[in-house]
Amino acid sequence: MIFYAHENKSASFGLQKEISARTRRDYIEKGQYMYSPPRYFLLIALAVPLLSCAAESNGTGSGDASDYIKSRDNCDSLRGDIPEPDPADPDNLSRVISDINKYCKGTDQKLKQLKEKYSGNERIVKLLSTYEENIEADMSF
Hints:
It is built from 6 helices and 2 strands.
């Protein structure tokens, strides 16, 4: 490990001298400054994870709207991936339809409720308005 100390304590931008671990004690005893991390390093280290968690949020600010968006995205993805009937794997189509029913059932009503609940929040209403309102009528499997 390399430590640095200022040649001249009074000069804030003085030349730095490389010292070994053996002579580090001598510099400390003489009152010369050693390199140390910034004082706010701990504060920054604690704040970064909090900021990254905030960045992961989709910006709705509400748990029920976020849950709906995740569930509805799964539903829409499954609706777009309906396979053709395959004689080699006849259960594949029934599995996909079962998953569609699992994720899509009740989404029309929930979308309507969330739009009413967050009618004063333009950001959430804008996110919710990107979804079709009547998809369950199309699910006549």
